[in-house]
Specification:
By secondary structure, the protein is of the alpha+beta class. The protein contains six helices and five strands, in the order αααβαββααββ. The protein has helices at 8-47, 52-85, 91-106, 123-142, 173-176, 182-193, and strands spanning 109-114, 148-155, 159-166, 197-202, 208-215.
Length: 230
């Protein structure tokens, strides 16, 4: 009788988790928007056929929401690919590229400060921090309707720290915790995997502030050895 190879189970479990992640993100970031598009289309068909101005306005909204769905699905697919392809030492460059794209599309003001240099962080921490911060930026752009965003990253001898602050609409923390806010849960889960902590502060009309602290060992130099304290 042939034994099942034990090393296959971790791979199978990882595939199941990835399918579950994609399913949740498609639901939260694409299917809900498509449901809204369907309702708007029904209104156009049943109520606005003779009201050309209102019909034109609704159709423009439908076009915009379909563009949003396309972008969301591309982001989800890109994240699946980038999780495998994210190169060590590319955190600052990738975040800057993402932020430049969002700034060009939405026109919001942006302050980006990064004193974490290439090879300062282990690759696993770089990867989880990148996707966590990108999710935070997406939330600020997509949900908070922010016009100003501040992102700062730094590290010292014992930790890596990040803060993401927006001036958007904010939200009620009591309803967000334990609700259907997959983005926030995903960010917390990513930080938990690498031993980090995510603190969120927000209130309706008061914007949102995210603070991340990730414990580290001694800083490393480009050769991979510990830096000697000055």
């Amino acid at each position: 009788m042939r034994n099942t190879r034990p090393e296959r189970k971790p791979v199978a479990d990882a595939l199941v988790r990835e399918r579950q992640r994609i399913s949740r993100e498609l639901h939260d970031r694409a299917l809900q928007i498509l449901s809204s598009v369907r309702l708007r289309a029904e209104v156009c068909r049943d109520q606005l056929v003779t009201d050309q101005e209102s019909l034109r306005r609704e159709l423009k909204i439908i076009e915009k929401e379909i563009d949003t769905v396309i972008l969301e699905i591309r982001n989800i697919l890109a994240e699946t690919q980038e999780r495998r392809e994210l190169k060590a030492g590319s955190l600052e460059r990738r975040l800057k590229a993402e932020l430049d794209i969002f700034r060009a599309r939405t026109g919001f003001n942006l302050d980006f400060h990064c004193t974490v240099h290439a090879r300062d962080l282990p690759q696993e921490i770089e990867r989880e921090l990148y996707f966590t911060l990108r999710e935070g930026v997406l939330n600020a752009v997509r949900h908070a309707r922010a016009s100003h965003l501040t992102l700062a990253l730094s590290r010292d001898a014992t930790s890596c720290n990040a803060r993401l602050i927006d001036n958007g609409v904010g939200f009620d923390m009591s309803t967000a915790e334990g609700g259907n806010h997959y983005g926030l849960r995903s960010m917390r889960e990513r930080m938990k995997r690498i031993g980090g902590e995510l603190t969120v502060e927000s209130a309706p009309g008061a914007g949102t502030r995210l603070y991340i602290t990730i414990p580290l060992g001694e800083p490393v130099n480009a050769s991979g050895s510990a830096k000697t304290p000055v």
